[in-house]
Amino acid sequence: MKKLVVLLLACLVASSAFAQIDPDPNSIGIYADLEAYVPGILPTPNVPFNLYLILTNTDAPSISAYEVGYENVVEVPVGSPGLVFRLGSSIANGVVSGLDLGDSSDILAGDHIVGLASPLVAGTATVLHSWQYMFTTDDIVMKMFISNASQSSLPGIFPVILNAETSTLFNAYPMAGVADGGPRDQTTNAVINVNEPDPDNPDSPNFPTATEELSFGSLKSLFR
């Protein structure tokens, strides 16, 4: 009976590991869903898909501007006819309008320096920006990184957000993966993998970092 309970708990931990937002405040990442649960996707060739730049657990009640740099590392096998298209780019996912003074003309690297026409109400997961992409073949892998904008309002290497209520600037910290409580203060890890299968489960996307969860030893300790 104990073994059955342990197995059930292990399954619950595994199934819920990615259904939670990283607990650290003012984190930022790119996700395949609007709730900031899924930092990976396996798109279907020639079918558009959306990705979302999301600020999580911010203490700002609303946002009036954001600055973020991006770099997309695309891997295409030699001889492959595969192409990557960016079909759209949307400020605040269309919830509010704004003006983007950044240079995002290059799909591989650029930035968004956005002032919003009206404050964007913030919550547990606040969508700052969204993009629509399309891959033409299934052999393309894209790893996405975020950092500071080219003309940053704060020193350092991190994205910058403007609190609409207090008119104060603060940094947002890129997160590689979800629900792991870290690492923070880094921009060298991808925040999302696009079309990279999990080595242990090819039908699922490979998230950038493993989730820290209870080990089997920790589960067993519950029943000692």
In brief, what are we looking at here?
By secondary structure, the chain is mainly β. It is built from two helices and 15 strands.
Name a few traits of the molecule:
single chain, 224 residues, mainly beta, Immunoglobulin-like, five-stranded mixed beta sheet, 2 helices, 9% helix
Q: What does this 3D model show about the protein?
A:
With 224 residues, the protein is mainly beta. It has one domain (2-221): Sandwich (Immunoglobulin-like), CATH 2.60.40. It is built from 2 helices and 15 strands. Strands 2, 4, 6, 7, 9, 10, 11 and 13 form an 8-stranded mixed sheet that branches. It has a 5-stranded mixed sheet with strand order 5-8-3-1-12, with no helix packed on it. Strands 14-15 form a two-stranded antiparallel sheet. The model is unreliable at 1-18, 177-185 and 210-224 (pLDDT under 50).
CATH architecture: Sandwich
* Total helical elements: 2
CATH class: Mainly Beta
In N-to-C order, the SSE pattern is: HEEEEEEEEEEEEEEEH
Stretches with pLDDT under 50, minimum 5 residues: 1-18, 177-185, 210-224
Largest sheet: 8 strands, mixed
Per DSSP E runs of 2 or more residues, the count of β-strands stands at: 15
Let me know the average pLDDT.
83
Radius of gyration: 19 Å
Q: End-to-end span in angstroms?
A: 14 Å
Fraction in beta strands: 35-45%
* CATH-assigned fold name: Immunoglobulin-like
Principal-axes geometry comes out as globular
Helix content: under 10%
